[in-house]
# Entry
Amino acid sequence: MIYLQLFYEFFKTGLFAVGGGLATLPFLYNLSDKTGWFTYEQLADMVAISESTPGPIGVNMATYVGFETAGILGAVVATLGLIAPAIVIIVIVAGFLKKFQDNQYVQNVFYGLRPASVGLIAAAFVSVLTMSVIRVDLFRASGVWTDLFSIKAILLAAVVYVLTNKTKWHPAFFLLGSAIVGVIFKF
Amino acid sequence: MKNEYLDMFCTFARIGGLTFGGGYAMLPILQREVVEKRGWATENELSDYYAIGQCTPGIIAVNVATFIGNKRKGILGGITATLGVVFPSLVIITLIAAFLQNFADLEIVKHAFAGVRVGVCVLVFNAVVKLWKKAVIDIPAFVIFAIVLLLMVFLDISPVLLVIGAGIAGVIVQGTRKAVRK
# Structure
């Protein structure tokens, strides 16, 4: 029953992804490995679309994955799965707001969770890196070392990196720009 | 009298539809719509909700919406506000996904997305750097970061296990520190 499985997988993601939108990414990579519902490339595309459309990124990702996997109902089920644990937890926590915030154990747990969350997102970064700038897939297919690094992609990445850190333009702008560069220079 | 649930749903749907990028991008819109215009929460409450929304599981925007809805109308209010905030995403993303299914095989779309992936790569890197500064504050935190990263990249391990393990590690590390200080 694909809907039940979608709900379960996204419920798990909603329960364990701490620290905002991109924190869902490692869970989705894991889901891709396990189920083959979507590829790593599709995931990267989903990140791009999620970043360039309104709404929380995690929710956008769930909707996209759900739709790709099982149509409109899949999109609804995945999104509901993602937000269900949050609703339950927040309603409980709201009862003793201050105590929760100041509790030493809660703080200790989060001392460990925060770097773990960064590690998980960094792993997701490695995945995106190996299919955009460092083309491990092309290298595996051809065995030619020069296929491993795409000069065009490295240049584009460098420009985007500098601009994202020097300007306050919206991420959607950079993604649109990257898309246009991709079309013009045939990435 | 206007239906308060409907009003709440519509307000949060508008907030969800106006927010690009989630989480922190939502804060100024929430301040205007919820604090200033409607008085559903105070500025201080909002900042508390954010602090806790960040360190409880789940999407920050959803957590904050649940808090505000729950405060106004109990559990049903929490659910209403949350469904409101995700509603625009559901509609917009479904439309885009449906569109892409029909055009994903076009050469031009493929090139566009190959370019976009490079942009995504940089955005994810920037997110890592930003989070790193707040999270990797000392050597034990760095060790947790490094172990999680290596296990995730080189082994097919479930992130759920890593998150649970890191939470336990946090309790042990901080607990030991306290014991040593005494």
User: Anything to note?
Assistant: Chain A is about 80% helix and 0% strand.
